[in-house]
Design goal:
The complex is a heterotrimer of chains A (about 425), B (about 290) and C (about 260).
Chain A: H1 2-28, E1 41-47, H2 52-68, E2 72-78, H3 82-94, E3 101-104, H4 106-114, H5 121-125, H6 138-142, E4 154-159, E5 161-166, H7 167-172, H8 181-191, E6 197-201, H9 211-222, H10 239-253, E7 257-259, H11 264-270, E8 274-280, H12 284-291, E9 297-301, E10 315-321, H13 327-341, H14 343-353, H15 367-372, H16 376-385, H17 395-412, H18 416-435
Parallel strand pairs in A: 1-2, 1-3, 6-7, 6-8
Antiparallel strand pairs in A: 3-10, 4-10, 5-8, 5-9
Chain B: H1 2-27, E1 30-31, E2 41-42, H2 46-53, H3 59-88, H4 93-103, H5 110-120, H6 127-134, H7 149-174, H8 178-186, H9 191-202, H10 204-219, H11 223-228, H12 240-250, H13 254-285
Antiparallel strand pairs in B: 1-2
Chain C: H1 2-18, H2 28-32, H3 39-46, H4 50-81, H5 87-97, H6 102-115, H7 123-126, H8 133-145, H9 149-156, H10 161-172, H11 174-190, H12 193-198, H13 207-217, H14 222-257
Helix pairs in contact in C: 1-14, 3-14, 4-8, 4-11, 11-14, 13-14
The chains are: A alpha/beta (about 425), B mainly alpha (about 290), C mainly alpha (about 260).
């Protein structure tokens, strides 16, 4: 106990030192950051659309918005990837310096809402289900709420997984594009050898999932049990999950699956060393770039598993408004969020980036894109049934346990059931620790 | 007067290092909510307890990985740089150029060159695997393999760090007394005996210095783990300092991360003191 | 010699990769011979405001070096030459700073930086690194190695302490100054996590953060990434090659000056 009071005092003096310094520096620096209430309202939007068509399209949309709303100025703050985005948002919130709007995954939103640092939709939109809500696909609507039942997010860049393939290679071997995972395995094994591997995946890291994690999740869902129940309870060692991991291990053993990092599937496909790649629909621009016209790039929705039902894994993020924004900023931010989710913006956004439009009203505006990419309507259909990450703060950490199980089975040769049992035990512990907060 | 001269340095240390460390100690006693500090809960030593009881990964395995990395860096790095220094100590243009070559990696930023090494170890297109494939040897998968990931990071780190310690040893060799070596040679000692009985004892102060700075820097090494392996696969490269980053900046369990930081500080301090103590004992006994 | 070549191989490899097309097939000759794809360089160069980032790095590193030299010389002089109460204790405190893991300081320092309005400025990248334990230690070692009589004599001449440090001390510890400058410069050039968290606009960010961001966003484009590695590393290497003699002799005399 004495130890405790002492450390408090030390911390107190450290804080005092910082405060003195703050006071000194405060004299020289002037004024607040946001300017006065009159004049144009400036809002900031922290996101990761840092390159390629994602950046150019967001910039164009934002310019359009500013032209239509001359009283609002939007500052785009770019981060290179989601890990950095999460760190930067958290640091900014901790320092009471949060942006007006930010991209979030469901589990981040849960964490933010628990800490009361984001606003519910009703606060700035006047209603929990404002007009635009009804225009979204059912799966997208469901993805906006947190466990308290209230809507806290607004959709922006949503996507599902698709299979990219080297159509020429498939054709030359007389193989059909796979509609079931069994057929997928057969095709993958048939082309493997002589430096070619059916598919290359990245199992991911404990910090962030990657294509391999998504493939496992898609397989588990296609076998009837997704990796997490809707209430966030991990079900990593379900028979469906064990079957999914065994499937991957079997592909690896027969030389039809390779492990790598940095989008290995895309690299292999581009180098004509791979047949398939599993990636987000939003990877379309990059896959095309990697292939560079060397062969016909096939695109298809995910095959079906033992249940025969179509399944998929939703990816991409939503938007939130952080507390700390002025009333004017909240209103301006809401206008901007509605603008980004509108049919015309979504049509433009999806047509340029490969993300899926969140509203069916965008499809008629995308006929050119659909003519070239007939997979789109089917992929959009997947937004209705795709499994989203359940909005609980522990899910990100529990996904890390999942990645470790994948690594253990695919690299160390650990038995899939054993690896998944361990992962389940650890994920349950994460859930317990998370729920206690 | 002395206080006044040390004041600028001490002010910087106090504000940006010592103060925040005390704050960290304080935070480590809480279930800390970095997003909203008002929601933090005092939990006493619970963070330390769950640290020792953690399973994924276990505290001991992370500590072991720190030790593995630091041990390899200290023992391998010291032996390697001493060997290089002995080879390169004679002057000459060619050896001068070799010195520069060995030193050059140390002058490169870790972010830049660890990225390059990630590509060297790339299992699909990398140099390491391509060379092995060309001579029909099995390819271990490097950073994707639980066995080889740590040696891969160590290989990069040695490449990056050894240059500096080589030069330190060269400095040590430059000031040792030539008469003693001469005398040894007159007495008929061979090269090994000369090194072992004459050169090596005189290098002890430099060696101790090298060992201490290498162990501190390798216990705290972070960037290469972040760029090359992200602590995986299956925690194979999760060291205490990577774990600290992960808990504090990926999962934002700030209180837990703080407890880890305090433990890492204690480990580093214990290591350093132990080495100084042993160093003193060795130099006193010789 | 062979070892020297082995150390250079990665450099060669990066340069070759930076000149190859994105999807070379993996054979030894493909990987080790350049294909002269200069477009990789223009692609990488266009991706970020590199000249600005370079300028920032240079400015930050130079300012940090100057500040660190000033604080190290003053403190090292005090610890090495002056006698005052609590000297040993204070020196122990300074040395213990070396053992504090830097990663953990980032959150509290971020909050402090925000309180003093230093986030996303040059200041937060310079001042916290403007005191170097290594520097203080080295300067002290050098002064300890000098005969105390020099300073006693100067004191009799009535020279002020500060003048004594300036006119007698500094010329005598020149090797230490060189090695501290280069070390602090490299450390500053090398720093990553700190500016990565503390800054967000390219106006003040250093080149390594730009590189990491480029890598995060373009992880798949390895030729362009290698090109970026080449042109962000080349200036430091050049700097080192020009000054290598000073650097190596400085480090050598440091080691010569180290006493148990």
């Amino acid at each position: 106990m004495t130890k405790n009071t002492r450390s408090r005092r030390i911390a107190g003096s450290a804080l005092a030192a910082a405060t003195v310094l703050a006071a000194v520096a405060g004299c020289s620096s002037s004024g607040s950051k946001d300017g006065a209430s009159s004049g144009p309202t400036t809002i900031s939007f922290m996101q990761i659309m840092i390159n390629g068509s994602q950046k150019s399209t967001l910039v164009k949309l934002t310019n359009d918005f500013e032209t239509a709303n001359p009283n609002i100025k939007v500052n785009l703050e770019y981060q290179p990837d989601y890990g950095t985005l999460h760190a930067k948002e958290t640091a900014a919130i901790a320092a009471h310096n949060a942006p007006t709007i930010g991209q979030v995954y469901e589990s981040w939103a849960a964490q933010y809402a628990n800490s009361q640092v984001i606003l519910p939709v009703s606060q700035y939109a006047g209603s929990d289900k404002p007009d635009q809500y009804s225009s979204f696909y059912a799966g997208v609507q469901k993805d906006l709420a947190l466990p308290d039942g209230k809507n806290w997010m607004w959709p922006f860049n949503k996507s599902v997984q698709v299979i990219y393939s080297n159509s020429d290679l498939l054709k030359s071997k007389g193989l059909a594009a796979p509609t079931t995972w069994d057929q997928f395995a057969t095709d993958a094994k048939a082309v493997s050898g002589n430096g070619v591997t059916g598919i290359a995946i990245d199992p991911g890291t404990t910090a962030s999932p990657a294509s391999g994690t998504l493939m496992f999740q898609a397989l588990a869902a296609s076998n009837g049990t997704p990796d997490f129940a809707a209430d966030g309870t991990p079900q990593l060692n379900s028979p469906a999950a064990v079957q999914a991991l065994s499937y991957l291990v079997d592909l690896k053993k027969s030389g039809a699956l390779q492990i790598g990092t940095n989008y290995p599937g895309e690299a292999a496909l581009g180098a004509q060393k791979g047949l398939f790649d599993l990636s987000s629909a939003a990877g379309y621009y990059y896959e095309n770039q990697a292939v560079g016209g060397k062969f016909a790039l096939g695109t298809a929705v995910l095959p079906t598993g033992s249940t025969g039902q179509p399944t998929n894994v939703m990816s991409g993020t939503n938007l939130v408004e952080f507390t700390g924004a002025s009333k004017a900023q909240q209103a301006a931010g809401w206008k901007y969020m509605q603008f980004l989710a509108s049919a015309s913006s979504q049509a433009e956004w999806a047509g340029q980036t490969g993300y899926l439009p969140v509203t069916a009203a965008a499809l008629p505006l995308m006929s050119d894109f659909i003519a070239k990419n007939p997979y789109l309507p089917t992929a959009v259909g997947a937004l209705a049934y795709a499994v989203a990450e359940p909005p609980y703060s522990w899910v990100a950490k529990a996904e890390g346990e999942e990645v470790v199980a994948l690594q253990a089975a695919l690299d160390k040769g650990t038995d899939p059931a054993t690896a998944l049992n361990t992962a389940q035990t650890n994920a349950l512990a994460d859930q317990k620790a998370g729920a206690a907060q | 007067m002395g206080w006044l001269y040390t004041a600028p340095a001490l002010l910087i240390f106090s504000v940006f290092i010592i103060g925040p460390t005390a704050y960290t100690l304080y935070v480590s006693l809480f279930h800390w909510n970095a997003l909203n500090t008002a929601k933090s809960k005092y939990i006493g030593l619970a963070n330390y307890r769950s640290l020792l009881g953690s399973t994924a990964p276990s505290f001991l395995s992370s500590a072991w990985h720190s030790l593995y990395f630091s041990g390899a860096m200290v023992i391998g790095g010291t032996a390697l740089s001493l060997a290089f220094a002995l080879l390169l100590q004679r002057g000459g243009r060619l050896l001068g150029a070799a010195r520069v070559a060995v030193f050059a990696p140390h002058a490169t930023p870790v972010v830049a060159t660890s990225l390059a090494w990630v590509w060297i170890f790339n299992p699909q297109f990398g140099l390491a695997d391509t060379l092995l494939k060309a001579v029909h040897l099995p390819q271990p998968g490097w950073l994707q393999s639980t066995t080889w990931a740590m040696p891969s990071v160590i290989a990069y780190s040695l490449w990056h760090e050894v240059g500096f310690t080589v030069v330190l040893f060269l400095g040590g060799l430059a000031v040792i007394s030539p008469e003693l070596s001469e005398a040894a040679r007159v007495d008929g000692a061979n090269a090994w005996q000369e090194f072992w009985h004459v050169t090596w004892p005189q290098l002890r102060p430099v060696t101790l210095f090298v060992v201490i700075i290498t162990s501190i820097s390798s216990l705290q090494a972070f960037t290469q783990f972040y760029e090359m392996s992200q602590g995986g696969p299956v925690y194979a490269t999760t060291t205490l300092s990577f774990l600290l980053y992960q808990e504090a900046f990926v999962f934002f369990d700030t209180g837990y991360g703080a407890a880890l930081a305090i433990v890492l500080f204690a480990v580093t301090a214990a290591f350093t003191l132990l080495q100084r103590r042993t160093g003193d004992r060795i130099s006193r006994s010789s | 010699m062979l070892a020297g070549l082995l150390f250079l191989l990665p450099f060669y490899y990066v340069v070759v990769t930076s000149l190859n097309s994105a999807s070379v097939s993996a054979s030894v000759s493909d990987i080790l011979l350049p294909h002269w794809q200069w477009a990789n360089y223009s692609r990488a160069w266009a991706a970020a405001p590199w000249p600005r980032l370079f300028l920032n790095t240079l400015l930050i590193a130079s300012a940090t070096v100057l500040l660190a030299l000033a604080t190290s010389l003053l403190a090292g002089f005090a610890f090495g030459v002056m006698r005052f109460r609590g000297r040993g204790l204070l020196f122990g405190l300074v040395m213990s700073v070396l053992m504090i893991p830097g990663t953990v300081l980032i959150i509290p320092d971020y909050i402090i930086a925000n309180d003093i309005n230093w986030l996303d400025t040059y200041w937060i990248q310079i001042v916290p690194w403007g005191a170097s334990v290594f520097g203080i230690f080295l300067v002290r070692q050098f002064f300890l190695g000098l005969p105390q009589e020099i300073f006693d004599a100067a004191e009799l001449d009535g020279a002020g302490r500060l003048r004594m440090l300036w006119s007698i001390g500094i010329p005598l510890v020149r090797p230490a100054i060189v090695i501290i400058s280069l070390n602090v410069f490299l450390a500053s050039w090398n720093s990553f996590l700190w500016p990565f968290i503390m800054t967000s606009s390219p106006d003040v960010q250093p080149v390594e953060v730009g590189l990491a961001a480029f890598a995060g966003a373009n992880g798949t484009d390895f030729p362009a990434l290698s090109a970026a590695v080449v042109f962000t590393t080349a200036p430091v290497l050049l700097f080192f090659l020009v000054l290598q003699r000073h650097f190596i002799t400085g480090a050598m005399s440091t080691a010569g000056g180290v006493r148990g």
